[in-house]
Structures are given as structure tokens and as C-alpha cells.
């Protein structure tokens, strides 16, 4: 390995999300790639992205990407399904020398590998479901797949409030999942795989699994994205071999609230004083 590639491998990974949900991806990256330095940027001033136009989301993503590029990252992870659905290709074009990874493609790939009968469910926010990014990605890999998609935006609020389990949470989960469960029961082959198509949703994984039963495989886009990043860095000889990497946090608003909500999604310590407040809107989009 050349000196140049050694230096490149020591650069951090940038992780971008509209808020706190992407911390589930950060958590998996830290778990699967403990030697990597990670920089997380949450655009908390403009969350949620799900109600914004594709044009606005792409502009925000460009601004965030430039902020992280200025920190000399080696790879950018778009830890947001809304951003991944509309902005991966524009960013790859705008940043041809940077590896850009979204969460949709790894999640779709994992669901196609996990399903036994080709009947796959997708739950996400309303914008991700209506964009049909997961549906397209799954059908590209498996044209014969049967896909049921359901918006479960209420899960975002549950996750952020720390309501992850218990009877009430399971009742809400069951109510939200009832359309996709009914559609599956009316089909010839029942759904055997469900994609958690929002980075908030892994926080509710145990409750979702209890409602659906153990026969339905849950595909966590955070886990699959981290595995994909690990493979990509290994293939490019860009793995950082240090024993333990550092994690930095940046937000565009409300570092105190970010620190308060972070433990719902991230297992490490997040102190308000260690969170950098940044302005990314001065970048053109």
C-alpha cells in the first residue's frame, strides 16, 4: 500500500442526516468499523425533510456534503432515506472523487437476499413511500417481487420520544401496520420480509417484530448500510486500522435537544458541549 493510500485511509467518514434518526446508521458504523473516525452532521434547523420538495432536499444535501467535504472526508454516507431517495445521483455527479453511499440500495439488496418467497414489505415515511425508491430498487434486483409499502410516519415521533416498547407502543405499531398486514394476508404468499425504510425505525424493531411475529425477517437499513460501507472500504483498501476511532457531532440548531434525544438512537456518549453548531446554508446549492 502506498503512502498516499495510507493517508487516505486515515481520513474520516462523513455521515449526514436531516436530524437525529441517522444516528442509528452512525451507531452501526461505529460497531462494525470501530477504527474509523466519524463525523456526523444533523441538519436539525430544517428537519423534517419528508415534507420538502426534491429540489429543496437536493439543495440541502449539497450544502451538507460541502460542509463535510471541507472536513476532508473519504466517504459520505447519506443516513436519511428521503435524501437517499432523491440526492444520491446528483451528489455522485457533483462529487466524482468522493464515495457517496445512501441507505436505500443496501436495504433493497438485503431484502432481496432475505426473502424466501419474494413478498417484501416496506415501511417508511410518507415521502419515501410516495417516491417509490425502495420499490424501484427491489424490482431492479427481483422483477418478480411482490411489494407492499406503508407510510408509518408516527413511528418517527415514537422513536424520538423514547417510546420503543410496552403495550401502548405495540398497540400503535399494530394499528399503523394493519394495512400492510391485511394486504399480505389477502395475497397468495404472505409477506416474509419487511424493510425498515426509515433510520428512526430500528429503535422500534423489537415492538415491530412482536407485532408481526418471528417468521417475518426485518431488514434494518442501518445495519445493511454499515456492512456495505465496510465492504466498500475494504475493497478500496481504505479501512482505518487504528484500534478506536473518534466521533464528532455537528448540528445546525439545538445542540441541547440533539444531545437529549441522541441516546434513543446512539449507544455512545453525546455531550451538548461537544456538539459543534454550524451554518451550512451559506453554501450554494
UniProtKB/TrEMBL annotation:
Molecular functions (GO terms): glutamate racemase activity
Task: Give the reactions, separated by semicolons, that this protein catalyses.
Answer: L-glutamate = D-glutamate
Pathway where it operates: Cell wall biogenesis; peptidoglycan biosynthesis
InterPro entries, alphabetized: Asp/Glu/hydantoin_racemase, Asp/Glu_race, Asp/Glu_racemase_AS_2, Glu_race
Q: Which family does it belong to?
A: Belongs to the aspartate/glutamate racemases family.
**Protein's job:** Provides the (R)-glutamate required for cell wall biosynthesis.
The protein, known as: Glutamate racemase
Gene that produces this protein: murI
